Known about the structure:
Helix content is 56%, strand content 11%. The chain is mainly alpha-helical.
Amino acid sequence: MDSDDDSPFGYDAFRRTCPSHTVLEMLASKWVYLVVCALRKGRLRNGELARKLEGITPKMLAQTLRVLERDGLVRREIFPVIPPRVEYELTELGQNLGELLTQIRAWAEQHAPDIKDARARAIAVNEGDWAA
């Protein structure tokens, strides 16, 4: 199967077994996206992240941070104090990703009214056939 664009890296994300496919799966998580964007401005502690990311559960935050650390996007530092203090920051790879995600976030914020209007028109035309 050929992708739409020839990748200079030798990978094809359209192939299920391609390593880049699994990277896209990880990036598809809204929490991965939001944690990376939140950490762009610098180090944060777990509680600071939890307050910034409204709606994230402690379990989901912990899972997301583990995935990001595993994939080399986030660095965790544990300080030997009582109680233990843990801070998270983006690695160079995470900062690189964060630049791209910030652009996508800005696009989403700018065009949210357009999407909302389009959804309302679609629902009106299709009498609720479209899922919100």
